[in-house]
TrEMBL record:
SUPFAM superfamilies assigned: Clavaminate synthase-like
Top-level division of the source organism's lineage: Eukaryota
Biological source species: Panicum miliaceum
Stretches assigned to the Fe2OG dioxygenase domain: 205-309
UniProt keyword list: Dioxygenase, Iron, Metal-binding, Oxidoreductase
Protein name: gibberellin 2beta-dioxygenase
Needed cofactors: L-ascorbate
The keyword Oxidoreductase is assigned to this record: yes
Biological-process GO terms, alphabetical: gibberellin metabolic process
Top class in the EC scheme: oxidoreductase
Catalysed reactions, semicolon-separated: gibberellin A1 + 2-oxoglutarate + O2 = gibberellin A8 + succinate + CO2
GO molecular function, one term: metal ion binding
Keyword Cytoplasm among UniProt keywords: no
Pfam families hit by this protein: 2OG-FeII_Oxy, DIOX_N
Length: 354
């Protein structure tokens, strides 16, 4: 992509931040150093999510007893009910593959900003900041490629920006995480409804799911009321999310009435329940609000797999009566987008209560 050679790689996040600050009457603002950041950011306790060895589920069951699989299933369901988040090891996604994905991400995000923003890379899936933000607290200090799996699967035409190995690595990661997500989703469904079967959740395949490659640049600014968000507080609008984060940390989730920081564990993957699974489970499983906090000096990378159905898929429920009216994934997504555009924040499942 010679037209972009030598261009700056960073998205203009600072420009957006200061424009929003002026819009809110905050003046021009000034970067805060690490000391100022520490002084305004409220302390958050660090936690270790429930850690579950899922080898008995991902290895084809060889050598695992029925009692081991039952205990693993019970642990997964308990974590989904009590935390909405858990960690897994022996998950079947090779560490060498995740290392390769991290290297490809770094190469991808080092491309010039103009190439990322207007070059049509990975199915024109590049995102940065928050276009709908009306205040600094609504701005996500991050950039990402939110990649439809169809863009990197099969023979689909896909601009890789000259990164010849990116497609193969991305595809391998997607396949491995898809297999894990499908296994965990079926286990969780069968824990509530044994007849849910091998096809749960209906309508999820490589044409409907997404892989999101995230980068959180160092952030030299802080809003007056605390550290800036790398990703604003939200819940996920899918069935299940599988996340690989690096060693930097920054992920926080709501536990009880407060935020807790998730301690990175080498080799573990993080799994969290999405809105659709909370609806299907009649609120047994919890789609928990979470966010990513910025780091003043260090960039952070992560990759997330989102288990999503087709837009016309009805979500349904594990049993009736359900607290939610019938809706499709497409209807849910449209309502989320309308709310964010209108109010600056997602409302989500409360819109669909009976």
């Amino acid at each position: 992509m010679p037209a972009f050679a030598g261009g700056a790689a960073e998205p203009p996040l600072a420009d957006s931040y200061y424009a929003l600050l002026r819009r809110c009457g905050g003046g021009d603002g000034a970067p805060n150093n690490g000391g100022a950041r520490a002084a305004v950011a409220a302390p958050v306790a660090e936690c270790e999510l429930p850690m579950i060895d899922v080898g008995c589920l991902t290895s084809g069951g060889g050598g695992s007893s029925e009692a081991e699989r039952a205990a693993c299933t019970a642990a997964i369901a308990r974590a989904a009910e009590e935390w909405g988040f858990f960690q897994v090891r022996n998950h079947g996604v090779a560490p060498e593959l995740l290392d390769a994905m991290r290297r490809e991400q770094a190469r991808l995000f080092r491309l010039p900003f103009e190439a990322k923003a207007s070059g049509g890379l990975l199915g024109d899936s590049y995102r940065w900041g928050t276009p709908t933000a009306t205040s600094p607290r609504q701005l996500s200090w991050s950039e990402a490629f939110h990649v439809p799996l169809a863009a990197v699967s099969g023979d689909a035409a896909c601009d890789l920006g000259g990164l010849t190995t990116l497609r193969d690595v991305t595809r391998e990661v997607a396949v491995a995480m898809s297999k894990l997500a499908g296994t965990l989703a079926r286990v969780l469904a069968e824990a509530l409804r044994p007849a849910a079967g091998e096809r749960f959740p209906e309508g999820c395949d490589e044409t409907t799911c997404f892989l999101r490659l995230n980068r959180y640049p160092p952030c030299p600014v802080s809003p007056p009321d605390g550290a800036a968000f790398g990703l604003v507080p939200h819940t996920d609008s899918d069935f299940l999310t599988v996340l690989c984060q690096d060693h930097v940390g920054g992920l926080q989730l709501m536990k009880g009435a407060g935020w807790v920081a998730v301690k990175p564990i080498p080799g573990a993957l993080i799994v969290n329940v999405g809105d659709l699974f909370q609806a299907w489970s009649n609120n047994r499983y919890k789609s928990v609000e979470h966010k990513v906090m910025t780091n003043a000096t260090t960039e952070r990378y992560s990759v997330a797999y989102f288990l999503c159905p087709s837009y016309d898929s009805p979500i349904g429920a594990c049993e009736e009566p359900s607290p939610y009216r019938t809706f499709t994934f497409g209807e849910y997504r449209r309502k989320v987008q309308e709310d964010v555009k209108r109010t600056g924040k997602k409302i989500g499942l409360p819109n669909f209560l009976v």
